[in-house]
């Protein structure tokens, strides 16, 4: 019986595939009335038939790279990888839970990153939607990321627009990701494997993906040229600070080192060769002296800028995050606005935190609420205060409330307040509550996932109506607040399980940012030195090499909070001398676990990886930087692998 059903399903699928194949071939020949309206779909089909010799009724000639090659391709991204992952987490928070998945491919169409709902991994692997599979047109026919990479434009490929019949229920919205000077880095794609909706319903999704790639591009651009002035420009003054603006990286001599993907078109030029290597005064009607004087005196200020072609533009200049190799001579001993701006940058060099800060700056002066996610101790409260201090409300009140620290019976009155006599035991004069107290400023709701469900409804009404009614009062009070919330819980999963209101979740997460754990931060060494100096009264702290290596290699489950406490204790124990390994306590600086313990029940692949790491470490005299370079991986990746295999490395040449 089961065999007959299976044969029937196979025959039905075969008939559908043949019908789809006829549809593809006749549409390309111009003989099908209902052919796709988008010319790029027909063009992609023609390439699949003519150039790649693919058969639409058959299976795709799937191909994937091995794990070693996949890791090499990921490593080649460098700092871009973390920026992409951070933006994918933000975007996935916007579209989940809705059965969509996110893909990031490199310029060859190889899937490097994927995000999907739990439990869908094996299903997606069976249809090649897993890291390592190649989704260019040659291997998967017309599809979102493949056609996007070929055309170098955002592309929506919906259901039957896919070349292969087996993909006929998918919808894909993909946009290219550009590096400086026109380098194609890859594509970001949002796909739904079984989408019943119309093609038009997917256009907002395509717009979201295109915006995400633009955010990544701008963050990567500024991070790649930290020693340059960043000139942002647009033909509308209010767009200079937005992601629509074009960007140029200008060195200390006024020469253009790089341009972003929008710059040539915005300046009316045909290519990057008319920009890179040219002086800024060749493009704008401004002398180099005037350019640098304005940049130093008024960083970030938007001013009219006449192009040499006569176009009127508006521009702003962002100061370097790092001093150039040959710094311009200072005119006075007083700190310039540029130096002040540089010192105020809090991320110290981590691309994910820099990307988060940039995103927050784009929305913090708009009626958009921000949700901060991340493990305990990653600095969500500090980041929230930083957002407030950099926005238009910096001179107004910043109030913080921990939803987990206040008993459920008191949190409502603490947040919304009450009038005198509202209930037995109420204060004689009443209490105005955190919301009213934060009027005009920012309210930071920490541990928002612990807010009771009943109170969530009142918070939602506050955000929608911008007014509250304290207990015991009949008339509402109008309030103007910006809400930043934070959590270390998975609110998307809580929504699915009924523990958090869906409507409130979407209202709070106008912009969702994920704070990286300390073990993944690129600037961990700078953080160690900076926090140590703070805990030591702004005096630089000296570390023994093995102590610093132990701090660097620690997994930091408590993140920045644990680091700060560890350093404060170590400074006290050191008594003004340099910090030695023994000042860090018993959790640091141990010898490596015995081989048997480290490799017990380990796979042969894991054993081989550990042996390779130890072999290269010994060859490089236990120098982590040299070892990482020899293995072709980042130092962060090396430390993660060492922790995984139970190897603790000191700077004194011993494991």
Describe the structure in your own words.
The protein is an alpha+beta fold and 655 residues long. It folds into 5 domains: 224 residues, 2-Layer Sandwich (Beta-Lactamase), CATH 3.30.450; 92 residues, 2-Layer Sandwich (Beta-Lactamase); 166 residues, P-loop containing nucleotide triphosphate hydrolases (Rossmann fold), CATH 3.40.50.300; 66 residues, Orthogonal Bundle (Helicase, Ruva Protein, domain 3); 50 residues, Orthogonal Bundle (Arc Repressor Mutant, subunit A), CATH 1.10.10. Helix content is 41%, strand content 13%. The protein is built from 25 helices and 17 strands. Strands 2-1-5-4-3 form a 5-stranded antiparallel beta sheet, sandwiched between helices. Strand 14 and strand 15 form a beta hairpin. Helix 1 packs across helix 2, helix 8 packs across helix 12 and helix 24 crosses helix 25. The longest helix is centred in the N-terminal third of the chain and has 27 residues. It is globular, with a radius of gyration of 28 Å. It starts with a helix and ends in an 11-residue tail after the last helix. The N terminus and C terminus are likely disordered.
Short description:
The chain contains 25 helices and 17 strands.
